[in-house]
Write a structure and sequence with these properties.
3 strands; mainly alpha; 50% helix
């Protein structure tokens, strides 16, 4: 629905507090979700969000070869999702970005251990949309 001046419609107060994402934000967010869409990568991120691990430990915990884990960790590092530091001959992987930590926490609060959706917490009320 147009607003008469050719600008897109907006929904009152919510539009001020939560502006529509830019194309660059949408593309970057989609890339992040795509990176996390592989169960192996999501498992690696989940573990690295809980502590610091070397590639061998991560590979064993995820159930893949060291080469496979290393390949996925490299992609996650390039995407800025996971960080690594060198300790002697080993690389130690972790997640220290609070946004990524929050994202990982939120998804596993949303999905129950059996894979179904977890019961929703009480909903917070939002101001009504005004057009």
């Amino acid at each position: 629905m147009a607003t008469g001046d050719g600008s897109p419609p907006h929904s009152g107060q919510g539009a001020v507090n939560n502006p529509e994402p830019t194309k660059a934000q949408l593309e970057s967010a989609a890339g992040t979700f795509a990176m996390l869409s592989a169960p192996v990568r999501l498992h690696l991120v989940s573990l690295a969000a809980q502590g610091e691990y070397d590639v061998g430990t991560l590979a064993e915990r995820v159930g893949v070869s060291i080469a496979t884990a290393s390949q996925h960790l490299g992609k996650l590092r390039l995407a800025g999702i996971i960080t690594a530091r060198r300790e002697g001959r080993r690389h130690i992987y972790t997640v220290d970005d609070p946004h990524v930590l929050n994202l990982v926490d939120q998804i596993f609060e949303h999905i129950a251990p059996d894979g179904s959706l977890a019961p929703d917490p009480p909903r917070r009320t939002r101001p009504p949309h005004t057009d």
